[in-house]
Amino acid sequence: MTLAAALACAPVLASDEKNKTAERLDDAASLFSEVMGTPDRAIPQGLLNKSYCVVLVPGLKKAAVIVGGKFGRGYAVCRAAGGEGWGPPAAIRIEGGSIGPQLGVSSTDVVLLIMNEGGMKRLTRSKFTIGAEATAAAGPVGRDAAAQTDAFVTAEILSWSRSKGLFAGASLDGATLRNDIDENQAMYGQRWSSKQILPSGARPIPAANKLLEVLSKYSPRRVG
Q1: Cβ(162)–Cβ(147) below 8 Å
Q2: Which residues are CB-contacts of 60 (< 8 A; sequence separation ≥ 6)?
Q3: pTM of structure
């Protein structure tokens, strides 16, 4: 392909990638809304309100359960300054590891809560491994679930998965979270890292509005 042809195709390719990004952001919003829409089988409200960040990865594919394979793409969103509202999303990838009892299913959604400043700082790294570098635990389910055990109190990350309608706590030990620079470029037009996005206080892109509205609906501010 000539340089002129490549330049001519660039706007189309950029537009197509932005459309895919918008779809993934909407999928992340739908995932969280559906999970929280049934309180008796959702993330306990008390834990959600204490969280510093949320990571949503919709639709991990079966082929990705191979060790070293790519699980999927999603978004990390952290509280805005002062704990009121939510800041701009940063794109992430999950690679390697397994998803506890969900191994082998055709498609799995993953939800992570980042529960303290230490976990939030790990999100700003280029990559980190759950279990090895960040303490993690499978999260409880339901509004009345006991959320004060030592594992939940000390964990930097709580994790859940959803497959075939079943939402439950899941271990993601061994999985690596890394910056998705390509997706960040599609969102912001710059090859920014999570470290540049999450604490920036930047205005989120319009395509993220639905996701931020859903997060604010269920937890408008951090408590505790």
Answers
A1: no
A2: 71, 72, 94, 99, 107, 108, 109, 110
A3: 0.86
